[in-house]
Amino acid sequence: METDRPDGRTPNQLRPLVCSCSILHRSHGSASWAQGETKVLAAVYGPKAGTKKSENPEKASIEVIWKPKTGQIGKVEKEYEMILKRTLESICIRTIYPNTTTSVIVQVVHDDGALLPCAINAACAALVDAGIPLKHLAVAICCSVTDSGCIILDPTKDEEEKMKAFINLVFPNTIVSVLPEGSLQAGSEPMAHGIMTSITQGAMSVDDYLHCLERGRAASARLSEFVRKNIELKSTSEASKAG
Amino acid sequence: MLIFVISAIDFHMPPICSPIVRPGRPAEASPMVSKQLSNTISSSRMTDLKELSLVSGKAAWMAYLDIYCLDADGALFDAALLSAIAALSHLQIPSIAMNDDGKIVLVSDEDGQKRAQEPVNKEKRKLTLRSIPFSLTCILHKNYILADPTAEEESIMETHVTVVLDTSGQLISLYKPGGPVLAYTSAIQDCAALTRQRVKELNNFLDKANSAMEV
């Protein structure tokens, strides 16, 4: 029993991913991330000296500015800024550069559904490009639940409007390590299965939520592989240029 | 009509409620709670929006929901959602008539003359609430789950999870905006179980409060 999606994808299939780094010259790090038609451009400046009044100067602080494609910043954009700020704070090692501020500017180029996960992925790629010290990367995915209980990954704007509920999930990147397997476990589950961020919209049962978690984890593994390939390719090509 | 109801929900944090809130620009938490409230109330479909329609295509009720925080001591969203639900359950819609010019006129029970007009709503009535959402905010710290934190606890520990369930057991929202502690499946299930327990308690409390107010 598989539902037909308008663009021909299977329920578990993501839209094609495109990631480009170092596309802006003035910023310390920049990345463009596209999932299908949804596209987000992220730029990172910093660490710059000084901290805002309301921030803690003993740690590096992160400032997120979200620019929509059109119009002014409203409550939706303010919420996105806060979610993005807290997600990035939890992956950065903030004790290395105390009393500094890192600015992350997110510009929405086009919104065709699953905008917040696309922005989180773009911001993480930009932080890597800027050389900000991170514990791990974050991979973001959007799952949605239809009225019949079917779970669909990475919905488009048209699909989002028909869904009963959808969830934006952020997981840590899967870790490739030479250490024994046990060190990557957190209790009985691997670290990549932990939820960093979860934002839901619409009503669903708790079981549906747990099913979305399983689908989201499987998709985040694929996203992790994609991110790793892109970053490795970039550093390899730069090393070959230097040689 | 849905757009009007959503955009009319506002959560205000005046400087009286907390030492960190300054006059002028709104506090940092204020748009977050407003957006979360709008999302929760629209997701739960607590009210039937057709009830608010008076004349199709012409006139409809618009509900303004303004929540003012007087003392901010943690778990602001829980208190805001509970007060919003209590206010909506106490809401009374007055009776309405349309006069010959097509304008909407309030009908007074004592005015016999206006009773000749055709009433749209025949009597003062309350809003029908379907399944009611309730929320519980928890803090995750290593292997511990701390329910209903105070402001001091919230400022020290940074990982908050807010679970919203309604009275029929549906998950309305699971809100975890980042934070250094990762939430695993067992922690999510524990938070959901705690929230289910709290939904029962708050539902009983709300029923008692409403029945006491009816008398």
From TrEMBL, chain A:
Domain Exoribonuclease phosphorolytic: 13-133, 137-216
SUPFAM superfamilies the UniProt entry points to: Ribonuclease PH domain 2-like (SSF55666), Ribosomal protein S5 domain 2-like (SSF54211)
Superkingdom in the source lineage: Eukaryota
Segment forming the signal sequence: none
A Pfam family per the record: RNase_PH_C
GO cellular component, one term: nucleolus
Residue ranges of the TM segments: none
A molecular function (GO) term: exonuclease activity
InterPro entries assigned to the protein according to its UniProt record, in alphabetical order: ExoRNase_PH_dom1 (IPR001247), ExoRNase_PH_dom2 (IPR015847), ExoRNase_PH_dom2_sf (IPR036345), PNPase/RNase_PH_dom_sf (IPR027408), Ribosomal_Su5_D2-typ_SF (IPR020568), RNase_PH (IPR050080)
CDD domains: RNase_PH_RRP46
GO BP of this protein: nuclear mRNA surveillance; poly(A)-dependent snoRNA 3'-end processing; rRNA catabolic process; rRNA processing; U4 snRNA 3'-end processing
Keyword line: Exonuclease, Exosome, Hydrolase, Nuclease, Nucleus, RNA-binding, rRNA processing
Localization per Swiss-Prot or TrEMBL: Nucleus, Nucleolus
Major subcellular site: nucleus
Family of this protein: Belongs to the RNase PH family.
Annotated PANTHER family: EXOSOME COMPLEX COMPONENT (PTHR11953), EXOSOME COMPLEX COMPONENT RRP46 (PTHR11953:SF1)
Record's protein name: Exosome complex exonuclease RRP46 homolog
UniProtKB/TrEMBL annotation, chain B:
Cell compartment(s), UniProt: Cytoplasm; Nucleus, Nucleolus
Top-level lineage group: Eukaryota
A GO biological-process term: nuclear mRNA surveillance
One Gene Ontology cellular component: nuclear exosome (RNase complex)
Domain Exoribonuclease phosphorolytic: 9-94, 132-180
InterPro entries: ExoRNase_PH_dom1, ExoRNase_PH_dom2, ExoRNase_PH_dom2_sf, Exosome_comp_Rrp42_subfam, PNPase/RNase_PH_dom_sf, Ribosomal_Su5_D2-typ_SF
Key words, A-Z: Cytoplasm, Exosome, Nucleus, RNA-binding, rRNA processing
GO molecular function (one): mRNA 3'-UTR AU-rich region binding
Pfam families per UniProt: RNase_PH, RNase_PH_C
Nucleus among keywords: yes
UniProt entry tagged with the keyword RNA-binding: yes
Protein family according to the UniProt entry: Belongs to the RNase PH family.
Protein's name in the database: Ribosomal RNA-processing protein 43
Gene name for this UniProt entry: LOC100812139
